[in-house]
Design brief:
Radius of gyration: 22 Å
CATH architecture of the largest domain: Beta Barrel
CATH class of the largest domain: Mainly Beta
CATH topology of the largest domain: Porin
Helix content: under 10%
Shape: flat
Distance between the termini: 41 Å
Structural class: mainly beta
Length: about 350
């Protein structure tokens, strides 16, 4: 399977090599990873002693076009990474393969030594998942296909105009977003070491910034439709796993306070089909609509938005959750108005559910 991922990453390189000088130069890289598992729950301690290891192949475009650089004030990468990880516990945890799109703002890339921060959200295939009879110890994963979220920091050294050495730190999280239990999710930091190659040498100069973000409209709002699925586990008297449909809407308003920063607040209403099934099994007709207030920060990197919000439920008659929750989102804007992305809702350190969101931004 991994060879097909490599082909998918390398083919764009061949087409780019024939196109000459580009405002979005294409680069490829590879890294070796070694890390550890964080036992964030008592039930996970016995299966958290292994040391995951693996490798990564990535391909990305360097966003050095004058318009992009002047608007954002930075140089960034936009690309996709393919991972293979062995969790060093073949009987219980097995291995995984993941494909993760990412965005990577660069820190002072005009020097020989520079840094970066990388945000990504993708999908992972897991070879070993929870099974009540055959694999009861693996409380990390219960679905073979799950979400992969990452927040990474790297340091690059330019060997020459086309080759760079890289080392860094990854914080990786794998979870099915609560679609099936058990779903403790795995947090496993890794350290990486690798090389990067550019098809065409390019000199990254210090960006000339403009102040268009100050003179233009700094206020914004967006409306999003919400959808997700969360499987309700079998129970005594209810032998079947039932899919609970979650749906709703979100309205947000905000103001840009910096070239890459915005503050926003809003409201969302979501019908929790998972809780609906659980309460129906108890013959409880309490509403499972949940209304929440949200306040937080939005990181703006060109067309990409990384949102972090926290807030209380103001309407939650079923009271099956904590009073407060966090929501982390990654969105991409198509054209001027279409916003598409995914968010993760969590209560403290426990992931609740991933969802898909799409709507209109003004």
């Amino acid at each position: 399977m991994f060879k097909y991922l490599l082909v998918g990453l390398v083919l764009p390189v061949l087409s780019t090599a024939q196109s000459g000088v580009s405002q979005h130069p294409f680069q490829v890289g590879t890294k070796w990873h070694r890390g550890f598992i964080i036992p964030h729950s008592r039930e996970l301690i016995d299966v958290s002693h292994s040391k995951p290891y693996g490798f990564e192949v990535n391909a990305h475009w360097l966003l050095v076009g004058e318009k992009e650089v002047r608007e954002t004030g930075l140089i960034a990468k936009r690309g996709v990474a393919a991972y293979y990880f062995n969790f060093d516990n073949p009987a219980v945890l097995g291995h995984c393969v993941a494909v993760v799109p990412y965005v990577e703002p660069l820190v002072r890339p005009w020097g020989h030594l520079y840094g970066s921060f990388q945000l990504g959200l993708g999908a992972a295939y897991l070879s070993k998942v929870y099974d009540e009879q055959n694999n009861p110890s693996n409380l990390f994963f219960s679905l073979p296909v799950s979400f992969w979220a990452m927040l990474n920091a790297d340091i690059y050294y330019k060997i020459n105009p086309q080759w760079q050495a890289v080392c860094g730190f990854n914080y990786n999280h794998i979870s099915n977003g609560g679609m099936k239990s058990p779903n403790k999710g795995m947090n496993f930091p890794t350290f990486n070491l690798g090389l990067q190659y550019a098809l065409q040498s390019i000199e990254m100069k210090k960006p000339t910034k403009n102040n268009d973000w100050r003179s233009g409209s700094r206020n914004f709002c967006y409306l999003l439709a919400i959808g997700s699925v969360k499987n309700t586990p079998a129970q005594a008297g209810f032998p079947d796993i039932e899919p609970g449909i979650l749906y709703g809407a979100q309205a947000m308003a905000g103001r840009r306070v910096g070239r890459m920063s915005a503050l926003s607040a809003g409201i969302e209403f979501v019908h929790d089909g998972y809780d609906r099934i659980l309460l129906d099994r108890l013959s409880d007709k309490t509403s499972t609509w949940k209304g929440g207030l949200m306040l937080g920060h939005e990181l703006l990197i060109g067309r990409v938005r990384f949102t972090t919000h926290i807030g209380p439920y103001f309407y939650n008659p079923s009271r099956t959750t904590d009073v407060l929750y966090q929501r982390y989102g990654l969105f991409y804007r198509f054209g001027r108005h279409l916003l598409v992305g995914s968010t993760l809702k969590a209560h403290r350190h426990v992931a609740d559910v991933f969802d898909l969101r799409t709507g209109w931004i003004w």
